[in-house]
Amino acid sequence: MKIRVSAVQYHLHTIDRFEDFVNQCEHYIKAALEFDTEFILFPEFFTTQLLSIKGPNGEALTINDLPPFTEQYHETFTRFAKAYNVYIIAGTHVVNVEGKLRNRAHMFYPNGKVVSQDKIHITPTEVHEWNMSKGDGLEVFDTDKGRIAILTCYDIEFPEIVRMAKAKGADVIFCPSCTDDRHGFHRVRYTSHARAIENQVYVVLTGTVGGLPTVDFMRMNFGQAAIITPNDVPFPPKGLLAEGEINDDMLVTADLDLDLLYEVREKGSVTTWRDRRTDLYTDWK
């Protein structure tokens, strides 16, 4: 079985109203559907674009003003997923949970179902500047194309959490990210390749590009989408099915062959998942 996925390099720029955000998202969705894609991934924190809309008195909005957009965000992507019959991993959006901010990824199903995964590992900037709180646990999600997990940006830098996702049956890890410089970008990119090799899974990665001059900590972005495979003979030599142009407004699309993934796990040049030494280190059930 194959899954066609598209990853959006979302261009952040100043907008005047919520409808501008809706129109930009629909543009990417329509572009992806021209390639008959089945899953569309948007980046982490892409809804911070809404903070470039001026407040009622012309003031700049802050991260605490983002949760009130949650209902509109849900309605918009639920409508898109149903109308276009596509799975949408709509990046992350900041929500309020019992008075605490959470960085929450959402997936919208074609049948109207909505699931979510809170970011589990929180960066120092998220903690100290935005007062974000950690997610409580890991979920995996069944679709009619297989089981997937959503791990956001910093999460992919921790081998244990991806091992848990694989142990729960996830074959594809969707990783929405947001990085502001080359160092952050390459941390996420390199560890995405490592996680794909260690667990023999696909990783679909994307990030924000552009910038928001009036939104603190979103003024600059450095991003590039990539669709990453294990490094073995049936796959491309660099473990890379597709990648975008750095910092360009675009999307990338590729097919994930799940049967090939299962075959490599059983009789690949290396069988990293099967050969893990659970007699020496903890495995995840």
UniProtKB/TrEMBL annotation:
Matches recorded under PROSITE patterns: CN_HYDROLASE, UPF0012
Keyword Hydrolase (UniProt): yes
Keyword Hydrolase: yes
Domain CN hydrolase: start-end pairs: 3-258
Transmembrane annotation, as ranges: none
One term of GO molecular function: hydrolase activity
Keyword annotations: Hydrolase
Domain of life of the organism encoding this protein: Bacteria
UniProt record similarity statement: Belongs to the carbon-nitrogen hydrolase superfamily. NIT1/NIT2 family.
Name of the molecule in the record: Predicted amidohydrolase
Native source organism of the sequence: Ureibacillus acetophenoni
